[in-house]
Specification:
Helix content is 18%, strand content 32%. It is α+β, with helices and mostly antiparallel strands and 440 residues long. The protein has three domains: 43 residues; 336 residues, no CATH class; 34 residues, no CATH class. Strands 1, 2, 4, 12, 13, 14, 15, 18, 19, 20 and 21 form an eleven-stranded mixed β-sheet that branches. Strand 16 and strand 17 form a beta hairpin.
Length: 440
């Protein structure tokens, strides 16, 4: 009798425990779903920086945030597109824009999107300019210039290398040549290398060629999209001359000094980003949009990339980002932020130190020496230079002493001079550029 009562009591307790457990599980599931609902609302919240969204938003879905691009802020980063061709980025606000509307930004397909630069400044060191010409701009055959060494000085660019004068002088042989000139922006917002000094085999030829109405584009040509030799000027279109992805954005200024070529963009200075989750003086911060990395789309992603070694600027290689990410660590916060801490890519630790913004022009045109930063522990200074490393020698040429300009008799325009080149052989001109009888 007692046995039956005990059995019933046990069954009642088990039933009560089961009901209680079921109710508790239901409560936990409900709590989890409530937290998920609150988190999803936060994940789907638009984080577009002010001034960076130009078009209407698409309807949001689980796979599409509805944002037309990825807004990105980059500070104090050596950004390599491929190998050593890239920029030192002081501070840049950009949008990564897919060429097909609605697509995510696929980092593994650099030809599928455009980097639209809104504002900020970048520096191309002398070595980067050298590599850009040798490995990309002149990477075809036959090429007019070979094995160049380019050195930037105050407002002047020196070029040394081999030159081949097709069908004019000893075809097929590289002649040692030196070129010099300034870089300016023209009305089409192109970079123009205004060559005003030419030495071939040590012989100064620019003055002689000018006196004979012979421009460099008669002696050689540059056959690369975005680069064109016109008269004595090499025109470079910054939106086409670099390796993919395509670059967009209007240049405000271009200046030269020992650090290299500094380009300032000022298309849209109204953009305001929120602070990234990790305080750092060197980072890449994607605040909105749908980036796709390793085949995974980060919907409405907020991703920050920082270096594991904080003693020097992050060096990021776009073509080889997988290797860096795979060797680093990734943390995900509840609010959806992703923090990628990665080792820097291989390459020199460069940071421009000579350019100081001017209060009158926002740093667009003037430069001045900056005060040296106090060194940090070890060999790396706060500026990112390795003070223990033996500096790589750079073959530089002393500035060419400029002669006093002779009175210019010829007042012909570029178009008129170009038309003269089409005249038949044997046509004679006087010093003023007028056709005249040939002297016996």
């Amino acid at each position: 009798m007692h046995y039956k009562k005990i059995t019933k009591l046990a069954m009642c307790l088990l039933l009560a425990a089961g009901v209680s457990s079921s109710l508790m599980a239901a409560t936990l599931i409900e709590k989890q779903q409530q937290e998920l609902k609150a988190a999803r609302a936060q994940w789907q919240q638009k984080n577009i920086p002010e001034g960076m969204q130009s078009g209407d938003l698409r309807a949001m879905s689980e796979r599409d945030s509805g944002v037309e691009n990825v807004s990105m802020q980059i500070k104090n980063v050596n950004f390599d597109v491929v190998e050593n061709i890239g920029f030192y980025i002081e501070d840049l606000n950009v949008t990564l824009e897919p060429k097909t509307a609605g697509d995510p930004i696929v980092f593994d397909d650099v030809e599928s999107f455009t980097i639209n630069v809104h504002s900020g400044a970048v520096v191309l060191s002398s070595q980067v300019i050298t590599d850009l010409f040798n490995q990309h701009i002149l990477d075809y055959w036959p090429r007019p210039l070979n094995d160049l060494t380019i050195t930037a000085q105050d407002d002047y660019l020196l070029v040394e290398g081999g030159l081949r004068l097709w069908s004019w002088l000893i075809p097929g042989i590289w002649l040692p040549a030196e070129l010099g000139g300034k870089i300016v922006l023209n009305d089409d917002n192109k970079l123009v290398y205004e060559i005003d000094d030419v030495h071939v085999i040590g012989i100064p030829l620019f003055g002689l060629l000018s006196a004979l109405f012979i421009d460099l584009d008669l002696l050689l040509s540059v056959d690369r999209e975005g680069a064109e030799l016109v008269d004595n000027n090499l025109e470079l279109d910054h939106t086409k001359v670099f390796p993919p992805p395509a670059l967009a954005g209007r240049l405000a200024s271009a200046t030269l000094n020992e650090d290299g070529l500094r380009l300032v963009f000022a298309d849209n200075e109204a953009a305001e980003f929120s602070k990234p989750p990790v305080a750092s003086d060197s980072y890449i911060w994607a605040q909105s949009g749908d980036p796709r990395l390793f085949g995974v789309v980060v919907n409405n992603g907020t991703v920050q990339v920082i270096a594991d070694d904080t003693s020097k600027p992050l060096r990021f290689n776009l073509y080889d980002y997988r290797k860096q990410v795979a060797a680093g660590t990734i943390k995900m916060a509840k609010n959806g932020d992703i923090i990628a801490t990665v080792p820097s890519a291989e390459g020199p630790d460069f940071k421009a130190s000579k350019f100081v913004p001017s209060s009158s022009d926002g740093g667009a045109t003037k430069s001045a020496p900056a005060k040296a930063a106090a060194p940090a522990a070890g060999c790396i200074t706060r500026a990112g230079f390795n003070v223990c490393e033996e500096p790589k020698p750079v073959k530089a040429k002393a500035p060419v002493a400029k002669k006093k300009a002779k009175p210019q008799v010829n007042s012909l325009s570029t178009e008129e001079r170009a038309s003269m080149k089409k005249d038949k052989a044997g046509t004679c001109y006087n010093r003023a550029g007028f056709e005249t009888a040939c002297q016996q």
